[in-house]
Amino acid sequence: MKRIISIALLSALILIMIAGCSSNDAKQSSTTEPPSSVASATPAAEPEKDNGTPNPASFSGEISFMTPWPHLQAQLEEVVKAFNKTYPNVKVNLAFGGEADLTNLVTNGIAPELFLTGTPLSNINFINDGIYADLTPYLAKDPDLSDKFPDTNKALDTYDQKMYGLPFDTMTLFPIYYNKKILDQYGYTEFPELKTLGDIDAFFKKFWIVKDGNQEMTGQLPHIIYNSMTAFTTFAYANGADDKTFWNAETKTVNFSDPKVVEALEWMVRFKRENIDDARMQKMNASFPEGTDAFINDKQAMGLLLPASAKYYLSKNPDLQLGVASMPEDALYISGQSVMLVGPSKNKDLGWEFMKWLTSTEEGTTSFAQNLGFIPALKDNSYVASLTDPLEKQAVELSSKAKKVQFIIPVDISAEFDKLFGDVMAGKMEPKAFLDHMTQYTQNLINEAK
Q: Which residues of 30-57 are buried (b: 16+ CB within 10 A; e: fewer)?
């Protein structure tokens, strides 16, 4: 059965852009391990220096870089080739897996030097147990390095005022891509400015049209934006919440029950109940040609999407007239993936060299941006400046408006959240009861982890 929205159609593509952003994805198992030679790798005893700067060619040894992207192995190999133009004597082995795999490798004494994740601080045990290395001694040797990243991105890697990773990419979740032809049909010559949750409600529901008992037109489903946590965060933020609403890092306390959050979730439930009928949606989706969806068939006025999704739609229907608009600025927040230095690995100093090159140099960020399609977190990087596609440029420019960051609580609550969020949207559990439960459930995990 086709899913209600285009998420299923885009799942493989979106995985490329946001594979690390779901903690469920990050914890999927993989049998791929770093080569055993990683354990015996050794750096050069003392790198030669050129004008006080270590000569990259004098570094030698072997490291392993672990990501959740086996489907991107060929692209990652191109990034490694670019690295070896500067560091010709450092061999980088690729490994693939999530947090569970990293734990197994650490336990067996064959930890990779570097691990890429979209949820860098969602497991406090990785910090307490030293699986993620404290970068303080490394940053002390490169005092200007942290200034190369925006504060919003650095906040995603900071716990107790210490950085445990370097920002890899940046994204604002999510621009609104809209079909200009459909908006024109409904009397809109331009996309209106949205400032509040009330504005979102009034505008979004105009495009949920039923004719003769059948779904005629759709818009964005508020309860599904990539996943339930992303949707929940987006509208809670639109209603005035921010990362500190949910998590106070100083007192180590959790709060999902703030009135702004309760009101936002109640709105999400009400919007679905009043506008979205699952059976009608299933019937409409079943009427489309195989491999297509409402957006491709001019039956969806707008959606909160990633730039790659918009490109995919245009590849399927070049006649789409797409525009880009912004959610209320309160709803814009920065997320992204990070590269973590693994504490128990054998060759951390070499790992640090690759980590710096990948995230904070023009060579490194341009290489992964061109090969993988991610927008670098590095300030003023040339890749962003070189973008020519107007839709992509507009989407990237929205990032400069985002003043909030994705909230990260240092325990994994994804399974409990997703299970009960579904009950809330189905009317089986009241929003306030759910949020009170998540507050207590999460606080218990935090207390147990201390």
A: beebbeeebbebebbeebeeeeeeeebe
Domain that holds residue 305: 173-334+408-449
Element (H, E) at 177: strand 176-179
Q: Select from 313, 346, 323, 384 the least CA-distant residue to 170.
A: 384
Check whether residue 210 and residue 155 sit in a common domain. no
191 found inside a domain: yes
Rounded to whole angstroms, how far apart are CA atoms 39 and 31? Answer: 18
Side-chain-side CA neighbours of residue 263 (13 Å): 12
Instruction: Please tell me the distance from the alpha carbon of residue 188 to that of residue 26, in angstroms, as a whole number.
Output: 41
Q: How far is CA 232 from the centre of its chain?
A: 14
> How many Cβ atoms from other residues are within 10 Å of residue 259's Cβ?
11
Question: Residue 152 belongs to what H/E stretch?
Answer: helix 151-155
Higher pLDDT: 361 or 402? It is 361
Number of Cβ within 10 Å of residue 28's Cβ equals: 14
Q: What is the pLDDT of residue 7?
A: 37
Q: Residue 336 — left, alpha, or beta (φ > 0 → left; ψ -120 to 50 → alpha)?
A: left
List pLDDT tens digits, range 21-79: 433 333 433 334 444 333 334 444 444 455 557 899 999 999 999 999 999 999 999 99
User: Distance of alpha carbon 22 from its chain centroid, rounded?
Assistant: 7
pTM of the model: 0.75
404 and 237 Cβ atoms separated by less than 8 Å = yes
Question: How many distinct structural domains can be found in the chain?
Answer: 2
Q: Is the pLDDT of residue 404 over 80?
A: yes
Q: Does 305 reside within a domain?
A: yes
Tally of CA atoms within 13 A in the half-sphere of 326 that contains its CB: 20
Establish if 22 belongs to a structural domain: no
In a domain, 24, yes or no: no
CATH number at residue 129: 3.40.190.10
**φ, ψ for residue 382 (rounded to 5)?**
-70, -25
Take residue 50 and report the two structure tokens written for it.
């050129």
d(CA 417, CA 93): 36
User: Which of the pair, 7 or 99, is modelled with greater confidence?
Assistant: 99
In order of 14, 26, 237, the CA distances from 306 in angstroms are 8, 19, 19
